[in-house]
Amino acid sequence: MTLPSTPLPTRPLGGIAVSAISLGCMNLSHAYDVSPSEEDAIRLLNHALDIGVTHLDSAALYGGGKNETLLAKAVGHRRQDYHLASKCVLDLIDGNRVLDGRPETIAGSLERSLERLNTDYIDLYYMHRLDRNVPIEESIGALVRAKEAGKIGAIGLSEMSAATVRRAHAVHPIAAVQSEYSPWVRNPEVAVLEACRDLGIAFVAFSPLARGMLAGSITDTNFAPGDIRIPMPRFQEPNFSHNLELAQRFNALAAELDIAPAQLSLAWVLARAPGIIAIPGTRSIAHLEENVAAAHLSLPADAIAQVDAIFAPGAVAGPRYPAGPQTQIDTELLPEETAQA
């Protein structure tokens, strides 16, 4: 695949150079507050491509397939302009979240995604989560067969541990590992970033703005009904007030640097390693442009040190997920999370 030239810095992902800051499409259909109108979402997706974003990230889970359908309608006619990623294993069926990594389920999920995306080929196809009831080797085998059939280009993993990544990579080269990573979520630093570096795997950072906490826009927890942050411990009291104080210190540092808090967070993420790609999501064209501009920033070492001091080990209050959803996360826990468990 040859993508058009982009004014943005690029980084390698599965043999393709994509924009270092790309676009996570989840919140156009799913998860946070109220989704934008279809017209506004279509406008944002096209504007992202217009300003140089060359990688779009979706999943079967997002809106129960609605996100993939949106991408087809919005930018399907520009398929040559972007590298497309989607995901399987996690799905939303009849309103219920389903985790199923069996090969036959993966094959069926892929066919439904291809139909919704109105394409015969997905450039990067992730296992969204690890199904602990199915050996990773069997799930990867299904993806290898899909690749051999010409339906996907590269294989990825999401929210998986270094040990799982290495097992999967032994079956077939993994192109990308996607996990949550930002100044306030440092779990990939335990082992996954090192595994990606050792194996030549791109690391894709989702929620690089800490689910909006480091975007300078959250001051309370008055989220819309159904927002996935409502049950998250870090957004519940007394944790929220403590974490908001950290965010305010972070915002003050961004102001000193004369950049937006979101730009500080994104520049920090990109500075961690040359193999990292960030995929912030947004419903706002203004925020999209602000985010993308961060790809050109180079933070001074003392600014990076100050961010690390604000979010020193143990500084953030509360685990990432409630107990139930955490059982679907294979990523290593930090020492303070292990102590809490």
TrEMBL record:
The answer to whether UniProt assigns keyword Membrane to this entry is no
List the InterPro entries hit by this protein, alphabetically: AKR, Aldo-Keto_reductase, NAD(P)_OxRdtase_dom_sf, NADP_OxRdtase_dom
Family matches, as Pfam families: Aldo_ket_red
Q: Which residues form the NADP-dependent oxidoreductase domain?
A: 21-310
Which keywords does this Swiss-Prot/TrEMBL entry list? Oxidoreductase
Q: Does the keyword Oxidoreductase apply?
A: yes
Q: What is this protein called?
A: NADP-dependent oxidoreductase domain-containing protein
Organism, per UniProt?
Answer: Sphingobium lignivorans
